[in-house]
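protien #1 (seq + structre)
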Amino acid sequence: MPTELKKQTVETLEKQAKESTGLIVTAFKGLKTTEINEFRQKLRALKGEYRVVKNSLTRIAFKNAGIESLADALKGPSAIVIERGDPIATLKAVFEFAKSHENMKVSAGYLDGKVLSDKELKILSNLPSREVLIAQLLGTLQTPMVNLVSVLQAPMRDLVGVLDQIAKKAPAAA
């Protein structure tokens, strides 16, 4: 018979799963508490949360949230990263931390309604940040306009150059 605390835990996890921008399931066997707390602090700055979970309760919460296939990644001591901000920035932080702490393994994730493998998440973590992508897009959109203005200004610029040369030669001729 489920206790009230277990019911509350499942409801909280289900609500967080539905409201998040993404979820990442990790295995953390062998990580020290100080390392986990250090990682949590990094995620807080990115509007993320790192939560050690009980697999059976998390499976129920994922099933209720409609992401049952993500529950397959819950094996052994598991924790989930709950993203509420920029998912790519959070992914970068997760893989950066996993690179320096070999006991942490990324199992799977859930972004944009799709369950992604650890390899797919790794590829996404290599994308530039949102701000960089927006800057690149704006630069690409702005380039044709800048070129058009330059082409339209060229005849006037050339005329001014010719008149300037004529003005410089006129006093010498007189």
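ok now protien #2
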Amino acid sequence: MKKITFNSPVILSFAGISGLVLLISFLTNGWFRDTFFVCYRDSLTNPLFYLRLFTHVLGHQNLAHYTGNMTMFLLIGPMLEEKYGSKNLIEIILLVAFVTGVAQVILFPNAGLLGASGIVFAFMILASVTGSKSGEIPLTMIIVMVIYLGQELYNGIVVNDNISQLTHILGGLTGALFGMTMRQSKK
């Protein structure tokens, strides 16, 4: 008989915490999410402002938003956690959260940001770098960046859909930089 294993602690914990946040937010009619998991410009004296710069990646608007992010997150994440280790994955999650949170506050002060899509895009680009040799730029990474980031640039300019394309772009660029840096450090 085969046993179920907790194969990817960071990825599974992130998905579980995000699901719990969604459930509690549903039970509180969005108050929990809006208070602790939506990043927006706020007073620098409010400690929640600094918390939300990181926690916004755990909040989702609804089940469809959560499912869309977690499907890719759970598909790509375990491979990356095995390859790069739990500590490095936590670092990239925190880095993407911080970069996208700060960009949101500076560039879009009248809008809120939530969701893990920036991390998903970082993982997509990072996965396309995985397995390539130092000194090489993988063609898969270039194609993924052209397709997904090109689409996000187009959508950001042409489409008005309440989706933060900037988060996707910054997440993808962070994933590319992280992947290239990790390859260089393994020389």
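The domain at 9-185 is CATH 1.20.1540.10 (Rhomboid-like fold).
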